[in-house]
Amino acid sequence: MSKTSIWTFKLSTAAIALIPAAIGINYLGKLFAGLLKLPLWLDSIGTVLASMLAGPIIGALSGIINNIIYGITVDPISTVYAVTSGAIGLVVGIMAYKGWLKNVKTAIVIGLVVGIVAAIISTPLNITFWGGQTGNIWGDAFYAFLVSHNFPVWLASFGDSFVVDVPDKIATVIISYFIFRGLPNNFNTIFRGSDKIEEL
Amino acid sequence: MNSIEVTNLSFSYTPEIDVLKGIHLKLDGETTAIVGQNGAGKSTFVKLLKGLLRPTEGEILLNGKNTKDYTVASLAKEIGLVFQNPNDQIFKNTVIGEVMFGPLNIGQDEQKAKEKSIEALEKVHLEKYLETNPYDLSLSERKLIAIASILSMDPNIVIFDEPTMGQDYAGKETLKEIIFELRNQGKLVLCILHDMDFAAEVFERTIVFNQGKVLIEGPSRDIFAQKEILEQAYLEQPYVAQIADELGLKGSYATDEDLLRALKEE
Amino acid sequence: MSTMTLYVEKNSILHNTAPLTKVLYVMVSIAITYLIPEIAFVLSVAIITLLLLILGKVFRKIVPILGLSIILILSIIIVQGFFHPQNQTILFSIGFVTFYKEGLSYAALLTLRVMNMIMSFGILILTTKHDELVEAMIKKGLSPKIGYVLLSVLQLIPQMRTTMAKITDAQRSRGMETEGSLLVRMKAFFPLIGPVVLNSINITRERAIALEVRGFSSNQKRSFLNISKEYRYQTAIQVILWLTLAAAIVWRILTWLS
Amino acid sequence: MAIIKVENVKYKYPDTDKLVLNDMTFDVEQGEFIGLIGKNTAGKSTLCFALAGLVPHFFKGAYGGKVLVNGLEVRQHEIGEISPHVGLVFENPFSQMTGSKYTVYEEIAFGLENMGIDREIIVNRIEESLELLDITEIKDKNPFDLSGGQMQRVAIASVIALKPSILILDEPTSQLDPQGTEEVFKVIENLTKEGITIIMAEHKIDKMAGYTDRILLIHEGKLIDFDTPAKLFSREDLQDYGIIAPAVTRISQSLGIQNKENGLYPVTLKELSREMGDKR
């Protein structure tokens, strides 16, 4: 594998065309999870896969644009979390590049890191915009519990995001890892952006 | 003998528009081609047979079993349907894994599933690609994998939706072998086709769908001789029939041999 | 039609306002409600936004969008009214549940902000065509490639949704169960999402080729088939909006200083 | 002068060992209609990509030899510079729609806008292409609401609008129904009258026989033969390359019906009926 630097990934046409696909995968992941009545969202599989395939920049773009699009077509509230989604793409892309995509165990670590980063970034957003809650019943119940036991708002809010994000992101990264590992070679090469053409 | 009996079958998504209307058919034994323009109701018909859609009216009996009384999953052993686009089903990273998915679902054990799958892959001549990723093969090869993934479940009735699309000469020959073999095993084979040459050459019986109804059905040779009726359904005659027509020969021709025999006699 | 959109075809003043002016309104109206945390002020901003929606003849369309946030709003009211750290003054009790004045007034502030946010977004998305918005942004310097991504997502997602039914049919035909215990349902997730991923990456590759041969990566300055619509008074409106934002910032700094 | 010159071209996809194009050499004259045949995986698509510059620029991998299109050496130029000379259309009409345009009219404009062509010229080019591909009636429809045949014609119109002198079609009808196939073949016939050089990979041999000037037969990355349909389909060894001759030719071969002047078998119904007429 001839990867150059992760930041100099040229935004090739293939990589750009991957972004709409990633957002579509996010969307269908969520629909299928709903269809099967799974207790998770699984709505960032596309973003995570895009990062694994084409690096942190494309991953981050997929995340950000995902929430903008969702905001202007379904629910404006979700635009607020564009930053969180972008960070998810960034973290996965960087960790994948640093060699953390070796096996299921390391994938779980990525999922954990992603979940924590997502919770850390969401916390100030939640505090600023809606006083610390997420609108998720379980998370908000946890928030109420913490606040009523005299924990500071920021910690309660972080706890709220943490219980919402971490399990979902771990599941998301594991699923994405299995899919990624199963991809044929010829899918990887076009997004890799290696510039070399050998002479024959 | 396997059989499909369809009585007074109608289907519609919305009350205003009938997709299928009053279909009566009895199929047993013979290989059958289903032809007709896009939107004539062919795909809807086979989805009804498969139990993926429920009739608005009428009944479907598969070997005496009324499809109403069974779930799709429980019918999987009785009737197999190969969809047009293999990309809508392929999700495993090896060919063998993909083909084994169905057999494992219907309760075959690992070893039997593997045996059946390898057998099915031999039939489509892809046995040397067991461990290959399906997406490292071409679309036409993936179509063959989809076919194998149904054959491995060993259903009594097999339906193909547009199997010849995008296949080259060798691919079509492979399909031909599979259809003949299934017939010899006593299975009932149905096939939606756009390729009239293939329909005429390979299938004993042909059903012409037009606007949700069966326009005509009978032995393929007779059907493909009827230029006017085919034109009514916006279909072309097979090339051999066209050649016969151009040369002013009377009668019905479905294969090269038919035509050659007639020409030599002359 | 196969496009995801909330756009409502009407003829109103808002429909005849430049997309970028509306974008600016969204940003300013949200920002000032956070800069100035006074209930009366936030309420009046929300009322202005509401009036604009009525002026744009799209008020009824915003109701279901507001409905999506009902859980968040209820949660804000209950949790803050109940547990807000500064709660002191008891307002009323229902059974054993006690609501406090401080918490409820904070909840009111938050709720008004959220509703204003959603409604001002509504002004933009209910009265603006996507392609016009994106083209306007490209002319302002947005990368045409990002513009392409934004527009294509809106059409490709509905396309992908139609494959969802096909995939489900194909896997059920191979005996896969989609109902039953959690384990059964979890096992069904891969056969469903797998084809979506593989198929869409495969199509991505083909589409990239189609884009390449049509000059997508060309460095030429792009031209536009559609001529931008002419709007009047836009500069004036935009200046007013910028001034409003500036005033709110000044107010904020002054309150800090005092 | 040859408009396409292919000299000893060799190519391997990245991370593979097999030469998909193995030392291919041939020339195509301006205005010719060339059929490209061979079994699946013979290298037809790769050859099409090589002529349009996607091989090697898009796919990378290992490359050798030279492809000249309209005097331009493909290896030395970017795809963006090649595409005004060479248009490429492939089998899946759906993935050729950009997705970012809401009408057929705008879809056709996509490439022209990217190349920064003046608005007045864009409008003219669109009108011309609409007419040539017989899709003026559907110009205001959403590309995704079309039938396969219509969508494929929009795809062709979109590259034709760039005024390429060469058009490459890689199995443009293999995913279409008979009606869509017929529509596409009809407009391709129109295009040949415009003086455009056409190269079309296709399995529908019977249709190809009547349309093409010459046929290029390839097998496992190698060029086997490049000749007129009559000569090529009269070869005895076609089956070795996974090809079957047109029905007319098969019948003629079995009956021994040959053209008296050159000893070749007929490839179209018309030719057959002429030879038969002479015989009777």
From TrEMBL, chain A:
Asked if the Swiss-Prot or TrEMBL record annotates the protein with the keyword Transmembrane helix, the reply is yes
- Membrane-crossing ranges are 6-28, 40-65, 77-97, 109-129
Give the domain of life. Bacteria
Report if keyword Transmembrane is assigned: yes
- What are the entry keywords? Membrane, Transmembrane, Transmembrane helix
What this protein is called in its record is Energy-coupling factor transport system substrate-specific component
Q: Which organism is it from?
A: Salinibacillus kushneri
Automatic annotation (TrEMBL), chain B:
A GO cellular component annotation in the UniProt record: ATP-binding cassette (ABC) transporter complex
One GO molecular-function entry: ATP hydrolysis activity
Question: Coiled-coil segments, which residues?
Answer: none
What is its subcellular localisation?
Cell membrane
The annotated topology with respect to the bilayer is:
Peripheral membrane protein
Q: Where is the ABC transporter domain?
A: 4-236
Keyword Mitochondrion tagged: no
> Pfam families in the record, alphabetically?
ABC_tran
Q: Which UniProt keywords apply?
A: ATP-binding, Cell membrane, Membrane, Nucleotide-binding, Translocase, Transport
The UniProt family comment states: Belongs to the ABC transporter superfamily.
Q: What is this protein called?
A: Energy-coupling factor transport system ATP-binding protein
Whose protein is this, by species? Salinibacillus kushneri
UniProtKB/TrEMBL annotation, chain C:
InterPro entries from the entry?
Answer: ABC/ECF_trnsptr_transmembrane
Protein topology in the membrane: Multi-pass membrane protein
Segments forming a coiled coil: none
The source's domain of life comes to Bacteria
Kindly list the GO CC terms recorded for this protein: plasma membrane
Chain ranges passing through the membrane: 24-55, 62-83, 103-127, 231-254
Q: Which UniProt keywords apply?
A: Membrane, Transmembrane, Transmembrane helix
For the keyword Membrane, the answer is yes
The entry's localization annotation reads: Membrane
Q: Does the keyword Transmembrane apply?
A: yes
Q: Which Pfam families match?
A: CbiQ
- PANTHER family from the entry? PROTEIN ABCI12, CHLOROPLASTIC (PTHR33514)
Record-given protein name: Energy-coupling factor transport system permease protein
UniProtKB/TrEMBL annotation, chain D:
List the InterPro entries: AAA+_ATPase, ABC_transporter-like_ATP-bd, ABC_transporter-like_CS, ABC_transpr_CbiO/EcfA_su, ECF_ABC_transporter_ATP-bd, P-loop_NTPase
* Keywords from the named record: ATP-binding, Cell membrane, Membrane, Nucleotide-binding, Translocase, Transport
CDD domains referenced in this protein's UniProt entry, alphabetically: ABC_cobalt_CbiO_domain1 (cd03225)
What membrane topology was assigned to this protein in its record?
Peripheral membrane protein
Domain ABC transporter intervals: 4-245
* Intracellular or extracellular location(s): Cell membrane
Kindly provide the name given to this protein in its UniProt entry.
Energy-coupling factor transport system ATP-binding protein
